[in-house]
Amino acid sequence: MRLTIACTLTPSGHPGGAIGMAVFGVALWKYTMRYAPHSPYWFNRDRFILSNGHTCLFQYANLYLSGYKAMTWEQLLSYHSERLDSLCPGHPKIEHEGIELTTGPLGQGIANAVGLAIATKHLAATFNRPGFEVVNNQTWCSIGDVYLQDSNNLTVIYDNNQITCDGSVDLTNTEDVNKKMGACGWEVIDVIDGVNDVEGIVAALEKGRDPKRTKPLFINVRSIIGVGSAVAGQVVSHGAPLGKDNVAAIKKAHGWDTEKVFHIPDKVKKFYGDIPARGEKHVREWNDLLPRYTEEHPDLSATFKHRMAGKLPSNWASLIPSSFPSDPTPSCKSNNTVIAKILAECPTFIVGTADLTPSVNLTWPNSETFNPPSLTPISGNKGSYKGRYLHYGIREHAMEAIANGLAPFSLRTTIPITSTFFIFYLPAAPAVRIRALQKLHVIHVATHDSIGAGEDGPTHQPVELAALYRAMPNLEYMRPGDSEEVAGAWTPAINHTHHTTGPSIISVSRHAIPQLPGLACCAAVARGAYVLHDGADAAVTLIAAGAELGFPLAVARYLPERHNLAARVVSFPCHKLFREQPLSYQREVLRRHEDIPAVVIEPYVCLGWERYNYRYFGFTEESMAGRIIGFVGEFGEGKVRRGEFVEL
Amino acid sequence: MRLTIACTLTPSGHPGGAIGMAVFGVALWKYTMRYAPHSPYWFNRDRFILSNGHTCLFQYANLYLSGYKAMTWEQLLSYHSERLDSLCPGHPKIEHEGIELTTGPLGQGIANAVGLAIATKHLAATFNRPGFEVVNNQTWCSIGDVYLQDSNNLTVIYDNNQITCDGSVDLTNTEDVNKKMGACGWEVIDVIDGVNDVEGIVAALEKGRDPKRTKPLFINVRSIIGVGSAVAGQVVSHGAPLGKDNVAAIKKAHGWDTEKVFHIPDKVKKFYGDIPARGEKHVREWNDLLPRYTEEHPDLSATFKHRMAGKLPSNWASLIPSSFPSDPTPSCKSNNTVIAKILAECPTFIVGTADLTPSVNLTWPNSETFNPPSLTPISGNKGSYKGRYLHYGIREHAMEAIANGLAPFSLRTTIPITSTFFIFYLPAAPAVRIRALQKLHVIHVATHDSIGAGEDGPTHQPVELAALYRAMPNLEYMRPGDSEEVAGAWTPAINHTHHTTGPSIISVSRHAIPQLPGLACCAAVARGAYVLHDGADAAVTLIAAGAELGFPLAVARYLPERHNLAARVVSFPCHKLFREQPLSYQREVLRRHEDIPAVVIEPYVCLGWERYNYRYFGFTEESMAGRIIGFVGEFGEGKVRRGEFVEL
């Protein structure tokens, strides 16, 4: 049975791969996966991730045939069109029923699947009890050529068609993939006839569900791109329409009516017809299990239901200290003071770092490592699946893509917190970006913010990254300026919910920075910017954030004493939150209506600050004061025009 | 013989790895590598890349001991300090003799080494003749735990100490690295005693130089981090000072005077003392070969010397067409029209793409693929080492990191051009960033610019990437608006030289855009922005770039006809080039001195445009005109203040 849908009508798309994978579609949606098309968000459903997202026609057709109600015939025909209401764009999107995560950028989906599998392992270890497997779903992931960690609930199906855009895979890759996956700790099963052997694929997939296995499973399916067409196995069937004649030839070979287009034979409909009812049976059985689970394990069941509802302990905000030491403190350390109790007492948070545990300071007393209980590392950090501290290794991109699997397992049941140096959020950026597109609830703690990481040199100084993350839609990039503001940053970060806001980056310093008790305001951080120090006679507004917040305060003391010039000071932790404030508030903070100039003090590339006015570099009070005086003078004389941008 | 330098004096740094690797230092610098400390930029030198850049103390000490003149004793003592003139920062930098490339961000150095090895293979295939091996240098690369392509002139030394920041490597990675590397096509040699077995390492390294081998070589050296100290093999010896007692213990074990600090015993100096003279002998032998090569192969030798001097054919600029078809054309296609002759006739350019050859349109007639001649891919694209078209595979980050090895082989001898969709310059960004830091001469052709890639959805729409690349220091991000401007973008891109400018991105559209003959100006692109259409009575300046350049021209025709409002139009292909113009030119282009407002039309996140004024979204002439009229009115009434930024 082959899929030949829509391939001739769209000007682009990826028909060949979708056709080549048709057999796994039958094996997965008809025979193997436990899911319920009429209850698409059933908590314990098997999750499927299409890591090779460009072959999504394959998934759309199976969603339609299995009975997902939103996936109508008209929707299916909208594949790869520019229709804004299409559920079938060129890559699958999280907003649509039956799609767990938006995929497309290659290399991420497999890590998303790892994240989903970790969520299952963790929740199962936390909530399952003998006879009560309330969480036991499987994660299935299909990948294409090009791709290629430890969990027996993860099965990867490799669509091994040996064709990419440029030619055969051996043009760029001659590795022995089975040996490589074996060396990486996977169990490998080969399916030689990936065109017809549905039974072989189903048997391999069923092995994926076998709880006696100890390794993740890699199924290498030798498929043929564009199978059945005259261009089968050829590059041209990858990313271009097959053409009328080819589609007709495929239909003929399957005994279908070659004149009928966009037609699904009755026998195919019948073949898939039993799936919705079977799905509802899975849901019913699970629903029946819950009351018995509640009876036997009332406390655990209450917690489980609380977690499934996406709720945090109602007292979480009170776990943040209300006062902090006044000595200069690295905001990285402040961050631990702010969050350690929440991490310890709110089991929703799954915390992890890319091999920087000693530096990023995100552990808490008695925190437990997430790892297979069978593993005893040489360095002794033995873990369990109940653990909530994940050692991701030096894999920043994989860390974030895994977190993208942890976050959407089910609404706020697990909220990942990740952490590394701010500069390493550049390699991680593709996964952070797709998370922001999906508004997934992930909190990032970026340390070694600013240029304080001096002796590591420019490779570690993230001067242009603030511009990237201030420009990234749906993401709140926050630079808190002392412990009080760090506490203030966590409130919007934790209050986010899926599909309403999005991820946050809390960017903190490695070096000690002054504390501003009585000045800095925890609650004001959520407004993006606020006045830290005011004065009716001020001739200039000084703006700063994060590790530099002490600078404008120091210079604002120095200027009246030495130069008889009064300055206002604005703390500006988050551009996005400030842009969301009413214009009246924005003008009040910036005092643009009185036409006094503003100076922004930030050691990053200035891109993005222009709208608030000017920028400055060089951080001694005297040099800052000198330049500010010069600038205010030029502004008064009209040499620098109102609203004109100057880099000093 | 161990390195115990400076480990107690710096507040940070990575002593343990440097000590653990001491034995390879002896094997490489004393016994194996062909190099000349007194002629550090000798063309045919072996190249060494320290991919695990944080262990650079290891490299600095060997540069000192081998006799590099710039690496003085005082410099060595400046390790990991914040001294601005230090040659010994926390990660190695390209500016310093004996360092081929800046390394630090993990995972890139090994690809840099692949690039250097490709450069050798290509130049050797092009210029060597029987008996005249004018290019036969080796590439050596050391990597740390965590890491892990086809070339018999590349040897990777794996510093397998099994320790990372968070603990032992098995905490996060239990792969069988030898099997994995074998499966990936590498020859693997194990050195069990990586602490003392210099002879074993030298024998393995010498195998790296054996021309009879067909695979790249992976030497797995079982080293001990911080060996000899009480914290040997422990996490604490990774990134923290060893402390006085530990250093003394190591000295004692080697029979050194424990009281002397920063002291190199005479026997060590003597051991390394013959290296500069040996190096000069290598240089002399090669210098003697050149006249004989010139006699036997005069034409080839002339080309070789021309290439070594970093020269392009003197007529290169005349190879760009001076006129273009006037029909709407995708600028991706314009790009091929502009550059195909240069690619065909200037052998300096090594062109490649990450599996998007059919889409990015960067081939030329009779272009040859770079690949081992022994490889015959199924799809038939047989190559040779003389080929200049590189199929990188779907490996954007590796592509750019490999290009970072190709570029600095020797000044402009090889200039890489890479290409992929603009959105995929996000995964590639860490390698582009470190290239920009080093001002390496690489030209990127980013296709599918703008939001024209509609049906692929937001995962393929690079709305925030322009902000990142406009913020990245040393890089020219250019959006040319028609064929004429594409030609104009290539001139600054090709005229770049190492250490004076840096890389460029030429961002081109997939969809057809209007051609502007008589308006667009090739030569003006190098100024960053210029007036495309002027008018003394204009009430507004419309700014656009790239695929949207037709919009302001269309609306500037529509506004006077329908709304009696005259508009100026500015083409703005490159922020960086415009910022480098005199302020008088900038004001002339923007006409800020006459205080008429400006509207920027770009479908990207507006961050970075604020300094030039305002921004607009929604691209029909009528809707654009309506919003511009409304905005000019508000500006006239003072509702929008001068210099105030508004998103419409």
Describe the model.
- In chain A, the strands form 6 sheets. A 6-stranded parallel β-sheet of chain A has the order 12-9-13-14-16-15, sandwiched between helices.
- Chain A has 3 domains: 15-278, Rossmann fold, CATH 3.40.50.970; 316-513, 3-Layer(aba) Sandwich (Rossmann fold); 528-636, Rossmann fold.
- In chain A, strand 6 (187-191), helix 7 (198-209) and strand 7 (217-222) form a beta-alpha-beta unit.
- In chain A, 56% of the residues are buried.
- Chain A has 648 residues and is of the alpha/beta class.
- In chain A, helix 2 (22-32) runs parallel beside helix 3.
- Chain A is built from 22 helices and 22 strands.
- At the A-B interface, strand 4, strand 5, helix 6, helix 14 and helix 16 of A face strand 4, strand 5, helix 6, helix 14 and helix 16 of B.
Note the main attributes of this structure.
alpha/beta, Rossmann fold, 648 residues, disordered N terminus, 22 strands, homodimer, six-stranded parallel sheet, 35% helix
Give the overall shape of chain A.
Answer: globular
Q: Please, how many helices of chain A?
A: 22
Termini separation of chain A: 68 Å
Beta-strand content of chain A: 5-15%
CATH-defined superfamily of the largest domain in chain A: Thiamin diphosphate (ThDP)-binding fold, Pyr/PP domains
Q: Of all protein chain pairs, which has the greatest interface, and how many residues does each chain bring to it?
A: A-B, 98 and 98 residues
Classified by CATH, the class of the largest domain in chain A is Alpha Beta
Total number of beta strands of chain A: 22
CATH topology of the largest domain in chain A: Rossmann fold
Largest sheet of chain A: 6 strands, parallel
